[in-house]
Amino acid sequence: MVFHDPRSPRERIAALGPRALAHLVGSLEPRTVAALDSHWEYLARTGQRGPESDWEIWLILAGRGFGKTRAGAEWVLNAAQSVPGARIALLGATVADARAVMVEGESGVLARASESAGVTFEPSLRRLRWENSSTAWLFSAAEPEALRGPQFHFAWGDEAARWPNAAATLASLRLALRLGSRPQLVLTTTPRPLAWLKTLTEAPGVVVTRGTTKDNSANLSATFLRSMARDYGGTQLGRQELGGEIIDDVEGALWTRAMLEACRVRILPPLRRTIVAVDPPASSGARADACGIVVVALGHDGCGYVLDDASIHGATPERWARAVVAAAERHAADRVVAEVNNGGEMVTSVLRTVSTTLPIKAVHAAAGKVARAEPIASLYSTGRVHHVGAFPALEDEMCGLLIGGDYTGPGRSPDRADALVWGLHELMLGPAGAAPLIRNL
């Protein structure tokens, strides 16, 4: 059996006894000893070094503080210096994140570059340039269309599990990696229970490195490590954020995966009402949140049924309004329920420009998204709501809503889940839905 020590050479040397350590240091020239602390091969743990096998994507799934950013930055520096004229994409959740963490952060490219590397950052152009003509550009995962034109040899994406519309963004990035004989992509992220991420871990050409916060204990505060172990050790949150595990359920979530699996049905009963619920984005364009568009119905059995998730991302008001009308027509909806907190009368006006006969009810949020969701989650727990099929993007958001008010993602806002809540509230908790059912015996 071959034993692979995950520690860095520095950590292994530091663990030597006093006599062995003194003998080793005495055998080296002073300038060699002084240079070691700036040499990545000396500092890097096994999990922070690029895979030795041939690979297309190196996916580092690890807990916070593992050293993912440092590994990504060092890999970029090596790629830029090894391939003169290399074109590199640096992709963060936003451009601000890419700059603050990947470039200017304490573990970012600029901080880790030696003076001899000759790298210059041009913030106004979102660009890093090397003296050997290699260039790296900063991109936002919220603007995947920006990746359509350029092409690259290498790319590094950070905190990919937190990207909005991550699967589509990753596809755009991979399509842009088409230069050279061996294009490569490094993804560094704390994992989340996302379908696309699970699929990626099993894909050919993908090498997965897993790690925990504790792996980097030599470089982290002992007080931090103790408090994290005390407060989160063994919990689902701790296993995900510190242990780097993909956990299907987040502790404290209003909905669990098992709850949603149990509510699936294939056959619809006769329906009393059908509603299209809309949670409009506060802005338009590529940077906008999704427009949540969810179709729900109330059956004659008194149960709610989720029929469709027609949500749309990065759309103009006219485009999402057309999607709402199309969903209403497709499902013969009785009414459209639209939240108007962000857009006011503009929301109903935009919908009216597409369909003058559309029955619309405007609703105003008096409480936060999670507070509105809690009574709806209770309906699920008692078996009164069913999903007709599977709605992965919607269900991921539902499982990210936590008791107490937090939202853990995916994306910045649970727009799909909020639309669902508005629709089911109208059907089942509003005046009509709250009325007692009369049955003939």
Describe this structure in words.
It is globular, with a radius of gyration of 26 Å. The chain contains 18 helices and 15 strands. The N and C termini lie far apart (73 Å). It has helices spanning 9-14, 18-26, 30-36, 40-43, 68-82, 95-103, 109-112, 166-176, 195-201, 222-232, 236-241, 257-262, 317-330, 345-354, 369-381, 392-398, 415-429, 431-434; strands at 57-62, 87-92, 119-122, 127-130, 135-140, 154-158, 184-189, 206-211, 264-265, 271-279, 292-299, 304-309, 335-339, 360-363, 385-388. With 441 residues, it is α/β, with parallel strands linked by helices.
Q: Top keywords for this entry?
A:
18 helices, disordered C terminus, alpha/beta, eight-stranded mixed beta sheet, Nucleotidyltransferase, domain 5, 441 residues, 36% helix, Rossmann fold, seven-stranded mixed beta sheet
* Largest β-sheet summary: 8 strands, mixed
Quick check: average pLDDT? 86
Globally, the shape reads globular
DSSP strand tally: 15
Q: State which percent range the strand residues make up.
A: 15-25%
Q: According to CATH, what is the class of the largest domain?
A: Alpha Beta
Number of domains: 2
Tell me what the CATH architecture of the largest domain is.
3-Layer(aba) Sandwich
- The radius of gyration is 26 Å
Structural class category = alpha/beta
Q: What is the topology, as strand order, of the major beta sheet?
A: 3-4-5-2-6-7-1-8
CA(first)-CA(last) distance: 73 Å
Count of alpha/pi helices = 18
Runs with pLDDT <50, length 5+? Answer: 434-441
Helicity range: 25-40%
What fold name stands as the CATH topology of the largest domain? Rossmann fold
CATH superfamily of the largest domain: P-loop containing nucleotide triphosphate hydrolases
